[in-house]
Structure formats: C-alpha cells, structure tokens
Amino acid sequence: MTDALPAECLDQLFRTARTHNELGGEVDDDTLRRLYDLLKWGPTSANQCPARFVFVKSQAAKDKLGPALDEGNYAKTMAAPVTVIVAYDLDFHEKLPVLFPHADARSWFAGDLEKRKVQAFRNGSLQGAYLLLAARALGLDTGPMSGFDNAKVDEAFFKGTRIKSNFLVNLGRGDKSKLFPRSPRLSFDEVARIE
Amino acid sequence: MTDALPAECLDQLFRTARTHNELGGEVDDDTLRRLYDLLKWGPTSANQCPARFVFVKSQAAKDKLGPALDEGNYAKTMAAPVTVIVAYDLDFHEKLPVLFPHADARSWFAGDLEKRKVQAFRNGSLQGAYLLLAARALGLDTGPMSGFDNAKVDEAFFKGTRIKSNFLVNLGRGDKSKLFPRSPRLSFDEVARIE
C-alpha cells in the first residue's frame, strides 16, 4: 500500500501552486528534457501519446509566435524564459505499432479522422496537464494560456503536418508577491456526487 | 526558488506509477473529498472549472454504468472499489460570475455553444488529468478508460442536463505483481523540439 505524498509536496503540486503572469529566470535545455522524461509516463488511451511540444526559447521563435498571441498574453509571453506550444498529432496512430505492440492498434484509427480528432484532443490535453504538474514537480512555475490564434500558430510551426496547437504554457520562476488573490473554486457538492 | 520534489515523489506520480486493470481495497468517501480538494486547484482557462464528477460506488450505480461499458472494461470496472465518471458541463459559463469575478466572463461564452464545447472538452480533460495525478499523490492506483458508450452514460447519469461524459477512472489499490511489462514511450526528439 502506497502512502500519500507529504503535505509540502501536495502544496507544491496543487494547494499553493499558482498560475503566474510574470515569469523570469532561466530554464536550460536539460530541464526541458527532464520535464519530458517525467510527463511522458502519464497514461493515455491505448498509449497513444498524441502530444507534441515546441519549446519556444530563441528570439527567432518568439518572433514567429508573437503575432498569434492575444494582446493580453503578448508581453508576458515575450518576457518568459520559455513558452511551450502544447500540440497534438492527428496522425498519432502511425506510431502505435511502436507504442502499443500487443495488437494492431493502428487499424483502430486509420481512415477515421473524426475519431482521431476526439482522441488526440482528449489525450493530448491530458498530456498537457501532465506537463503542467511535472513542471511544478520540478520546481518550475507555469502560466498556461489559450488566448491565441491556433491557425496562425499551426501555420508558423506545423505547416505541412497534421499537428495542431492546443494551448500554450509559459515556464520560468514566478514571484509570489506579484500574484493577485486566488480565484475561488466550486465545492465538492456543486460539481460531484457519490452514488 | 522552489526545489524539485524528492525522487520518490516523482516516482509515485510519474516514473513507477502504472495503469492498473485489477483494483481492490476500499476507498472511503472522505478520500474522494480529499481527492477533489486537491485536483480542484489545478488551472483551467479563465478558471472555468468545467469538470463534473460522479463517483460510482454502490451496486445500484454500477448496474447503471455496466451496460455502457465495452466488454473488455466490464469485469474490472464492476470489481473496482470506485469508478469515477469524469464529465464536463457545457453550461460551465453559468458559474463564471462566481469563479471569475473580475470580469463579465459569462458573456464571453453565452450563446456560443460550439466555443463552449471546445473549451469544456479541453479544460475538463485537464481536470481529469489532475484527478489522475492527485489520486496517485494520495497513494491510490488508477485505471483510466475511454472504452465505453458516452451516450449511454450521459442518458443514465446526466439526463436533462448539458453535462457530457469524457472518460472513466477506476480507483483503488493495485497489485504490481499482476502488471504486464510497461509499454514504450516516444523519445524527446520524436515528439519535441527546442527553437
């Protein structure tokens, strides 16, 4: 039987972790690889692993991303050490012979783009959440956003593929003194029931 | 500056955690409330918090769920201490006056069901992932599944609402000796790039 993690770990992952607008510091490439080497273990249906990631760090990459951002997300994203484009590949099934070798899982999805759209969006979003919590587990602060033009990002970063952007995540070190008060959450009884 | 969590915490969350088919033990209602009180803090766009949860525990609830399950998911789900129906509410915007009090966020979504479908599916899936990792953080084992008839689950559990089922999660205590070898993951360079 496994114990619960210590209280300070639950705080770092969930209870005191916050979404940050202003992120500074440096995030080196080794940290990005460690981040992926954690999040990759999170479960997806039939081990689809549809998520794809671009880590935007250089000025050239920021210049490609900038025009796609909503005005309110522009300055903070240009200033962040890294912005992750969390995306998903609608052709994820092509890798299932490697990822799910026990059965011909590729055939479950080949020729059914509508099914793949639902599966890739669901499981790619799960993997985006694994990235957020893996980043917090590594001591990074995060700033996820969906205020941007997906079609522009896809054109700039994924042209000629079936990879589609999902959401963005700024990564770095936040400053708790600059945070606004936390927004409320719904109570258990407002969103859940035990039957 | 925040440190990375200790290695054994990273193991419990990601590196040695596994999806379990056979789950036993007991999961009391207090644990389900603690689970929600962790996962609720995970970020969603504009604090939408669209996820809704039904914790299926009783025989009567299992009897409602059973006919919707794919054959391969039936026996393990009937035997699990709890099955969570992870769902999302397409009318999540009605709660934004409480959840996002700084602006009239309700008006961003009212009258645009197609936009709400994308937002609720993305952010509700993120919250499903937060549930999976919060369960592991509490020492529970998980068995997520998407092999079921969503329309049947919606009819049985969410009739008369705009709440839609997303995926299912069995919860309990697993037995590592019964696991198959772990399926592979894609390498960093196959799914990611640093620009």
From TrEMBL, chains A, B:
Family under the similarity heading: Belongs to the nitroreductase family. HadB/RutE subfamily.
In terms of HAMAP family, this protein maps to: Oxidoreductase_RutE_HadB (MF_01204)
Q: What is the lineage of its organism?
A: Bacteria, Pseudomonadati, Pseudomonadota, Gammaproteobacteria, Lysobacterales
Under Enzyme Commission nomenclature, its number is 1.-.-.-
Could you tell me what this protein is called?
Putative NADH dehydrogenase/NAD(P)H nitroreductase GCM10023332_09150
CDD domains (alphabetical): RutE-like
PANTHER family annotated for this entry?
MALONIC SEMIALDEHYDE REDUCTASE RUTE-RELATED
Name the enzyme group at the top EC level: oxidoreductase
Sequence ranges assigned to domain Nitroreductase in this UniProt record: 27-157
Superkingdom classification of source: Bacteria
Q: Which UniProt keywords apply?
A: Flavoprotein, FMN, NAD, NADP, Oxidoreductase
Q: Which InterPro entries match?
A: Nitroreductase, Nitroreductase-like, Nitroreductase_HadB/RutE, RutE-like
Q: Which cofactor does it need?
A: FMN
